[in-house]
Amino acid sequence: MAFHHTSWFPALHGMCGRVIVEDYVGPTLSQLSHVSWLERADYARQLLEMAQEFSSAEFRLYLTDVSLDNFAVDTKGKVKIIDAENIVLVDPSVRGLETTEHINKGIGCQDCFSFSYEDLCGHTSTDHNFFAVCKGMLSSTAYSQDLPVGLLHSPPSWVTDVYPSLKTDVEDCAGHINLNIHHLPRRREAALHLHSQLVNILREALLHS
After folding, report:
1. Cα–Cα distances in Å, from 203 out to 45, 206, 207?
2. Residues 104, 126: contact at Cβ < 8 Å?
3. pLDDT at 4 over 80
């Protein structure tokens, strides 16, 4: 792949025709539902950073298949995408694109991931990746039979006591957006605040370990 974001993907060793050879990364996120909350919080932190990086890159990369089975964790704890065949690539410098941010309002289906290729490819920016990560993998209604309550379920009491807005930020980032224009920026704001809290939580946990 001609992506600058190679750290998010397995190493590619070679290809011939329709056959490619790449690294085996490790267990998928759906196979890691049993790990500690702090480990899952670190995976969530990385997913939010991926969403931010892909959304602001020179060529936008939009995630359209957010199953927990499509992301794996290597031996160093790094989250990687192991199924990238459904990523949408957009050049925001193309003339004629809408310069106002596209908002994925999450409408079209209640319990499935909805989006429009026309909208993703017709705008210079969108909050789509934040919706994909928060709704698809972090929220209490995630798209996973193995982990339907999301990666950030059941935080310890010391986390909720110090960071009472953590759950609200997750659900605001994941939620269907109100059509009132005053509410439209909330998803990015919630995602950035959620990421900041996770960074602080993980730092504090490391200091006290």
Report:
1. 12, 5, 6
2. yes
3. no
* Residue 196, both tokens: 């900041």
Cβ atoms within 10 A of the Cβ of 153, count? 17
Give the number of other CB atoms < 10 A from CB of residue 3. 15
In order, the DSSP letters of 7-58 are GGSPPEEEEETTEEEE-----BGGGGTTS-HHHHHHHHHHHHHHHHHHHHSS
Cβ burial of 88 (10 Å; 0-12, 13-18, 19+) is middle
Residue 7 is encoded by which pair of tokens? 């750290």
User: What's the rounded Cα separation, in Å, for the pair 163 and 123?
Assistant: 35
Q: Which CATH number fits domain 6-207: 1.10.700.10, 1.10.260.40, 3.40.980.10, 1.10.510.10?
A: 1.10.510.10
- The ranges assigned to domains in the chain are 6-207
| 101-154 per-position pLDDT tens digit | 999 987 766 667 889 999 999 999 999 999 999 999 999 988 877 788 999 999
Residue 201 exposed, middle or buried by CB count within 10 Å (0-12, 13-18, 19+): buried
pTM of the model: 0.89
Helix orientation angle between 186-207 and 166-174, rounded to the nearest 10 degrees: 140
Tokens representing residue 30 in the block: 């759906």
Which amino acid, one-letter code, is at 46?
Q
Say if CB 98 and CB 23 are below 8 A apart: no
